[in-house]
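S.,

Sequence below, as promised.
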Amino acid sequence: MCRLYGVTRGGYYAWRKRGMSPRAQEDHLLSKAIRLIYEQSHQIYGSPRIQEVLANVDRKHSRKRIARLMAEQGLEGRCMRIYRAIPGLQHFFRDIDKQTLEGATGINQVWVGDVTYLKVGDQWCFLAVVMDWFSRRIIGWSLGNRRTVSLTLKALNRAVHNRRPQGPVIFHSDRGIEYVGHDFRARIKRLGFIQSINRPNRMNDNARMESFFGSMKCEWLHGLVFDSNDALRGKIRGYISFYNYQRLHSSLDYQSPVTFEEANN
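The prediction came back faster than expected:
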């Protein structure tokens, strides 16, 4: 083998005796730390978030180095991708955020709600979620077999129970009947909330809720099959806990929603 690679026998044995270089030893320890963080994130984090976690414990390394060590271990983060190439879509999302957040300086000022489709066996079911716009924290949710006002009311009422807001809240949603129906609007009025809905033909006004649903499906639910609502409900509960308390958000300066709220109250 030495002859094949053009190396002297003496050089080979000298290399064997030297052992790992300091750089290689550091890479070995860093690789172990990276894998631990990756597993603790439920195999979701890529190099940017792992870099932030390491920096938070005073272990600052370049993103390129972390990405290299992840690749060597076959570790790959999950990320949401927008599959249809729509010119200006990302810029549009940022513009919507600025418009909707104008004047929101803390929690319980703007809440947003939306509903998404999920599959159990061969049947569709529906998940209604309420998010605090300022911190992106999920504060109420409900899972059911029908997309109705009853479903969205349950999510809203759980959010009210969990947060107990002291002042008026702007509640924003799309223009679906489950949000503009009489019973839902009556509940909003009794709470003293201000109702806001998407602009006509602007389906992406509720950008942060769309982002949450995309992340949940890509990071947590993709490829899984559920045979009951209870099984799906348990998985959703686990993701929302992870999302609120652990998942780092680049738009929150790489903090979780709960940490962001604590830092800004």
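The CA atoms of residues 127 and 143 lie 5 Å apart.

Coffee later?
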